[in-house]
Write a structure and sequence with these properties.
By secondary structure, this protein is of the alpha/beta class. The chain has 3 domains: 299 residues, Glycoside hydrolase, family 3, N-terminal domain (TIM Barrel); 222 residues, Glycoside hydrolase family 3 C-terminal domain (Rossmann fold); 120 residues, Immunoglobulins (Immunoglobulin-like, Sandwich), CATH 2.60.40.10. Helix 4 runs parallel beside helix 5 and helix 15 packs across helix 18. The longest helix is centred in the first third of the chain and has 25 residues. It is globular.
């Protein structure tokens, strides 16, 4: 029989049915595993579904390393997210062709990327929070949508790569309990916080895949949840792509969640509820499940249709000349354009939290500079987890050495260890700091101290943190530096919040660098010396103390994030200083709107400086409708660059969905009342105002 599935002129559905019809049950089940075996008699090669591209093509050799996802979120720049993901998918396609030509197969070689992670970073103790776009559902959805678009491309027939929204849903630690815990989330919190970004990536971005989480949500294991997979994902949202389990999550059904009696029942529960691909090997038991009547052949074929749809759309079964993305040359891998894009992203991501005037550093007036701290020379402080490899990584010391040139006297000492107290007592580093005009102290965390279960090998808590303070050795050393009386610029590397309250009054300046990628040292140096201006904004709140947070395993959003916390953060979500901040002078909005209407507001912004300036304008709202609502919530943002003296008016539009209120039963509906709006370069809480954020305000009546 002629192999119709090889005929690229036929409709996709016909080709898939032809291929499925040629497979035995054993072959079908094999194709539902993440390491799908080849089928030699049909000329089908093995395919590994497992690949990663969180901030660059990961774990497959040389690739451009971009800032970690939390740093990309700090740019508040949708267009930049699209550009970064487009560069990553270019490199992915080029690497795929290289590997295919050499016959290289297996994990981290394919075109199905388990990215992005759009879980809400609700608690700073979660080690994987660095993989997310922060604590706000709107920011997460906006950045995630553009990232998916960049990964998947815009060809009407073929996928450039296949993106995956993970981990569905209500998943953000603790890592050590992720195989067993039950995340209890109210209907309100589900609709208001945990599900919106997933919906946006499915409904608006057309994400090809969704990955289920390890945990249970409201009693159901996420990879076999009727509510999440059947009712919400495929029912309410109309998802047409495939669902994959997290790795070895299905064995948790019977081993730790105790919702099934053994592997056959676990495999049956997962596939019956709509999990199509098993990262792991439990789906081997589907043959027995079919024979025992637990799973129908039609259910198996349903999953295969979804899986083969992805592989066909990636061009696996078509000739090279048919698939436009297969012509992407290997020269794109770590191309100069991509390296410059990584640098630009790092520049836009770093957040200036305090500046008493010491920055920018003036090379003409400055005579000497002292560099110290465990992250100053550490490449690990640039990376973040799920990273590729680069032969040209620029550490902070290297970047500053290049930028400072020959005119400055400067020295470097580690001063303290990263995760431990000193083994030998010495104050050389603090004594030496007295002799220099300014000290740059590079403190914080790195990927050995926060990350996924098993990866952060310097910590005992499976990648999570039990404290948000600096490690004691770093803290003691930093306090000695601050007590010297000389200006200290504190540079914090981290993918999550660190309590900076012991240092905020004494430090001359504080910079949050995140994990800024391979060009992090150059980016920081250009910012510190004023070649570029700071414009990053916090995608998470930096709390004053851990005691202000609810228990880590409590998934109720009450008292969490800027949206519901009754306690002011030390540095609030959305905050970030600039050398030349823009002024928001006016917010114009209609007096009233009715049900199902969108709302367009006009924000007037001015650059009062003698040089061009870049800043992020943010729109926040509060729904005063007689029911539960967030303190404030981000509803729009726009990164602007204005020329000296320029004034510009931008329009921001709120959708009916944004304007609607979430009821306690989880239904979203229009409610009469008032919509209070603020526009500025930060949020409208009193702490942001105290830190210098000015805002324009308007009120819109919501009338039935």
């Amino acid at each position: 029989m002629k192999e119709l599935f090889r005929n690229s002129d036929l409709p996709l559905a016909q080709r898939i049915e032809d291929l499925i019809g040629r497979l035995t049950l054993s072959e079908k089940v094999g194709q539902m595993l993440h390491e799908a075996p080849g089928i030699e008699r049909l000329g089908i090669a093995p395919y590994s579904w497992w690949n990663e591209a969180l901030h660059g093509v990961a774990r497959a050799g040389s690739a451009t390393i971009f800032p970690q996802a939390i740093g990309l979120a700090a740019t508040f720049d949708r267009d930049l997210a699209l550009q970064v993901a487009t560069a990553i998918s270019d490199e992915a396609r080029a690497k795929y062709e290289i590997f295919a030509a050499k016959g290289t197969a297996g994990r981290y070689v394919g075109l199905t990327f388990w990215t992005p992670n759009i879980n809400i970073f609700r608690d700073p103790r979660w080690g994987r929070g660095q993989e997310t776009y922060g604590e706000d559902p709107y920011l997460t959805g906006e950045m995630g949508q553009r990232f998916v678009k960049g990964l998947q491309g815009d060809d009407p027939r073929y996928l450039k790569t296949a993106a995956c929204a993970k981990h569905f849903a209500v998943h953000s630690g603790p890592e050590k309990d992720r195989h067993s815990f039950n995340a209890v989330a109210s209907p309100y919190d589900l609709e208001d916080t945990y599900l919106p970004a997933f919906r946006q990536l499915v409904v608006e971005a057309g994400v090809e895949s969704v990955m289920g989480a390890y945990n249970r949500t409201n009693g159901e294991p996420c990879c076999g949840s009727e509510f999440l997979l059947e009712k919400t994902l495929r029912g309410d949202w109309g998802f047409q792509g495939h669902v994959t389990s997290d790795c070895w999550a299905l064995q948790d059904f019977h081993l730790t969640h105790k919702v099934t009696s053994g592997p056959v029942e676990s495999a049956a529960l997962a596939v019956n509820k709509g999990c199509d691909l098993n990262c792991g090997n439990l789906f081997h038991h589907l043959e027995d499940a079919v024979r025992m009547g637990f799973v129908s052949m039609e259910t198996i074929d349903r999953s295969l249709r979804r899986l083969f749809s992805t592989r066909f759309r990636l061009g696996e079964f078509d000739s090279k000349d048919k698939v436009p993305f297969r012509a992407i040359p290997r020269s794109v891998i770590r191309s100069q354009a991509h390296i410059e894009l990584s640098l630009e992203t790092a520049v836009r991501s770093m957040v200036l939290l305090k500046n008493n005037g010491i920055l920018p550093l003036n090379k003409e007036k400055l005579k000497s500079l002292y560099l110290t701290g465990p992250n100053a020379m550490a490449p690990e402080a640039l990376l973040g987890n799920y990273h590729g490899l680069s032969p040209r990584m620029v550490t902070f010391v290297e970047g500053i050495t290049e930028e400072a040139g020959q005119d400055l006297k400067f020295e470097f000492r580690h001063g303290s260890l990263l995760a431990e107290e000193k083994k030998i007592t010495t104050d050389w580093a603090t004594f030496e700091a007295r002799e220099f005009d300014v000290t740059l102290a590079f403190m914080g965390l790195n990927i050995l101290m926060e990350g996924e279960e098993g990866d952060a090998i310097a910590m005992a808590d499976y990648g999570d943190r039990t404290s948000i303070a600096l490690p004691k050795g770093q803290h003691d050393f930093l306090m000695k530096l601050l007590d010297q009386g000389k200006p200290i610029v504190l540079v914090v590397s981290a993918g999550s919040a660190i309590d900076l309250s012991p240092y905020v009054d004494k430090a001359a300046a504080i910079v949050y660098s995140w994990y800024p990628g391979e060009q992090g040292g150059t980016a920081l140096a250009e910012l510190l010396f004023g070649k570029r201006d700071f414009s990053g904004k916090l995608p998470v709140s930096l709390p004053r103390r851990l005691e202000d947070l609810p228990p880590f395993d409590d998934y109720n959003m009450s008292k969490r994030t800027y949206r519901y916390s009754p306690v002011e953060a030390l540095f609030p979500f959305g905050f970030g200083l600039s050398y030349r901040p823009l002024n928001v002078t006016k917010l114009e909005a209609p007096a009233s709107i009715g049900p199902e209407q969108s709302l367009t507001v006009k924000v007037t912004v001015n650059n009062p400086h003698r040089e061009s300036a870049c800043d992020v304008v943010q729109l926040y709202l509060h729904k005063d409708c007689g029911m539960k609502a967030a303190n404030y919530e981000l509803a729009g943002f726009e990164r602007l660059e204005l020329k000296a003296g320029e004034t510009k008016t931008v329009e921001l539009t709120l959708t009916p969905r944004q304007i609607a209120s979430v009821h306690q039963d989880g239904k979203r509906a229009f409610a009469a009342g008032a919509l209070r709006l603020w526009a500025g370069t930060g949020q409208p809480d009193s702490r942001s105002r105290e830190l210098g954020i000015t805002l324009a305000q308007a009120t819109v009546l919501l009338k039935n």
